[in-house]
Amino acid sequence: MFRIFIADDHAVVREGLKQIISEVSDMRVVEESDNGFDVVSYVEMNPYDVIVLDITMPGPNILDLIKELRQKKPRLPILVLSIHPEEQYAVRVLRAGASGYLTKESAPDELVSAIRKVANGGKYVSAALAEKILFTLGTNEEQMPHDNLSDREYQALCMIASGKTVKSIAEELNLSEKTVSTYRTRVLQKMGMKSNAEITHYAFKYGLVN
């Protein structure tokens, strides 16, 4: 029996995930949380076979949370569930230590197989993303400018492109406005840009935001 821990700040999403999982006999949701603050403490105190994490919820930044969980429980499979397109975060969460990345749009059809695969030690991404990663590895394709950004800088780019203000980004990431402004400045410098409008145009052109 695979013991599943679900962390998502939307009750309706958690209920939907539990309903999908309840339809198979060898999986059971044994714990759930509506924020990232509780995740590490739950994981330290209880045994789970897979943890399913929403990419955006109250608490630590998802990349920081994954890295902390990896330090505490190196072998615990982490499946990240996201409303964001794969191009935006999938490779970064996998690099941080996640075992799989699944869009919420795909969850009804793929959740069970994704959980089963990561629980058995595998990695899970969509066929389209897997093909893209393999294609990139098999070519001399140059890195895109945003590939040179740190995780925090990349987050700032995506959030700015989504129309969020420095203040709202600071609140969401639990950072000071000054720190977020510094990330914005670094993004502009590294990307050779001068304004938020250029950031937004770039992000939409390359599918980093919807």
Keywords:
210 residues, alpha/beta, Rossmann fold, Arc Repressor Mutant, subunit A, five-stranded parallel sheet, 5 strands, globular
Q: What features would you describe in this structure?
A:
The protein has 210 residues and is an alpha/beta fold. It has two domains: 2-136, Response regulator (Rossmann fold, 3-Layer(aba) Sandwich), CATH 3.40.50.2300; 145-205, Orthogonal Bundle (Arc Repressor Mutant, subunit A). Helices cover 52% and strands 13% of the residues. It is globular, with a radius of gyration of 18 Å. The model has no long low-confidence stretch (mean pLDDT 87).
CATH class assignment of the largest domain? Alpha Beta
Number of E-state strands: 5
Q: Helicity range of the residues?
A: 40-55%
Largest sheet: 5 strands, parallel
Give, in spatial order, the strands making up the sheet with the most strands: 2-1-3-4-5
Structural class by sheet pairing and helices: alpha/beta
Strand content: 5-15%
Gyration radius (Cα, Å) is 18 Å
What name is given to the CATH topology of the largest domain?
Answer: Rossmann fold
Chain-averaged pLDDT = 87
Poorly predicted ranges (pLDDT <50, ≥5 residues)? none
Number of domains: 2
CATH-scheme architecture of the largest domain: 3-Layer(aba) Sandwich
Give the ordered list of helices and strands: EHEHEHEHEHHHHHH
Please name the fourth-level CATH homologous superfamily of the largest domain.
Answer: Response regulator
Shape: globular
The number of helical elements comes to 10
Distance between the ends: 37 Å
